[in-house]
């Protein structure tokens, strides 16, 4: 196994940056069994994976 040594100083870069938009609470799902299958009880967070990129 090859040992990789980074010669660049990474201390000057930020660890991570996040963008979290404000969300409004619109209620929970009526069918809790379906919500369990979806992985969330909040309908606005149910965003199924489609296998494609988000941007056009």
How would you describe this structure to a colleague?
By secondary structure, the chain is low in regular secondary structure. It has a domain at 18-45. It contains 1 helix and no strands. The chain has one helix spanning 32-38.
Supply the helix-strand structural class.
little secondary structure
Taken in chain order, the helices and strands follow as: H
Question: Helix segment count?
Answer: 1
Strand content: under 5%
Kindly state the percentage of residues in helix. Answer: 10-25%
Distance between the termini: 40 Å
Shape: elongated
Q: What's the story with the biggest beta sheet? A: none
How many strand segments? 0
Mean pLDDT: 80
Which stretches are poorly predicted, pLDDT < 50 over at least 5 residues? none
CA-based gyration radius: 20 Å
Write the layout of secondary structure elements.
Blueprint: H1 32-38
Keywords:
single chain, 56 residues, little secondary structure, elongated
Short account of what is shown:
The chain is low in regular secondary structure. It has one helix at 32-38. It has a domain at 18-45.
